[in-house]
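Changelog-linked ticket: S-adenosyl-L-homocysteine example.
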Amino acid sequence: MDVVKGLIDKLYKENRIERDQLLYLLDNLDDQGRDYLFARAHETRVKHYGTKVFMRGLIEFTNYCRNNCLYCGIRASNSKAGRYRLTKEQILSACQEGYRLGYRTFVLQGGEDPYYSDDAIVEIVSEIKNRHPGCAVTLSIGEKPCESYKRYYDAGADRYLLRHETASRKLYESLHPGASFDSRIRCLWDLKKIGFQVGAGFMVGLPGQTNEDYVEDLCFLMELKPHMVGIGPFIPHKDTPLAKGNSGSVEMTVTLLAIIRLLLPQVLLPATTALGTIDPLGREKGLKAGANVVMPNLTPPGVRKKYTLYDGKICTGEESAQCRQCIEKRIIAAGFTPDMSRGDNVLWKRKDTV
Ligand code: SAH
């Protein structure tokens, strides 16, 4: 315990750690060490963000996807997925509903769907910013050329979520047929250079994933220094090649959340829907280990069930207003304070592109 505690203290004080020390920590954490880690992570979030939990309105606007990620329910080859796309008007009215409910960040997420040209994305982003000045727009629409990212930024997009999924090249390549690990990583650096608040992140408990792989993920985060990090357990989807696997664990996910809070003290760190799916109190456990963001669903209820990345996904049955109320109650019951403001990373300021 002394060595483990020493490493956690080092992480807490210096916000950095050597690769072999990280592996030692992951290999040797017991319940007592974990409690100590969570306490230090909690202190760190309070220092930078108080007990605030930022609320983001999530609009899942298309489940068409050209990719074939082995784990994902909306992969191109899943012919059983009922597909949908929202029109620009539908997206705008979801934002309007969100604004009425108090949201000041809208997250537009979808599969990689070429139907939405760069012009279309630019038009949608500009119109949201036009109608809701002062609100933040986050895009999560996959890998694009740097030029496209620049256009989205110039149209007013503030943030971009692109999980690196796993920083282990071999594992990445085995899960993403036809995709390139280098390209994924390049996109993240491009986004950062352009000036976005950038979100990287990874899944926990993928088939074959080891502590060595998590060390790769954490070292990559130390290098990239993203403003946001989205991590959640892998959960099998019945119509994918990984249907027979086990889900990632709450314990490992929450442990990694806490370590990320210590490595990147100011990071915006969601307690994800996937974490709430594998454990009814998963998101609350995440908040207590350093997470400070939640992303309630604003997708029109009629199509929600179709954005099924994994089986059993929660929050697909309710109205947006119910989702908002439910999560707000949970945040308060866990001892935190729901915050509807834009909630930018305190280290970020918008810069103009050249
Ligand atoms: N097309 C966008 C959005 C992907 S969906 C992009 O490429 O970034 C959002 C995230 O859901 C993915 O990044 C992945 O980490 C997660 N996800 C997909 N399938 C999952 C599964 N079966 N279990 C848990 N998370 C999953």
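Closing comment: Example verified and attached. Strands lie at 52-55, 57-62, 105-110, 136-140, 159-161, 197-204, 228-233, 293-294, 337-339. The pocket of S-adenosyl-L-homocysteine is lined by residues 71-72, 109, 111-112, 140-142, 162-163, 165, 203, 232, 234-235, 237, 274, 309-310 (CB under 6 Å).
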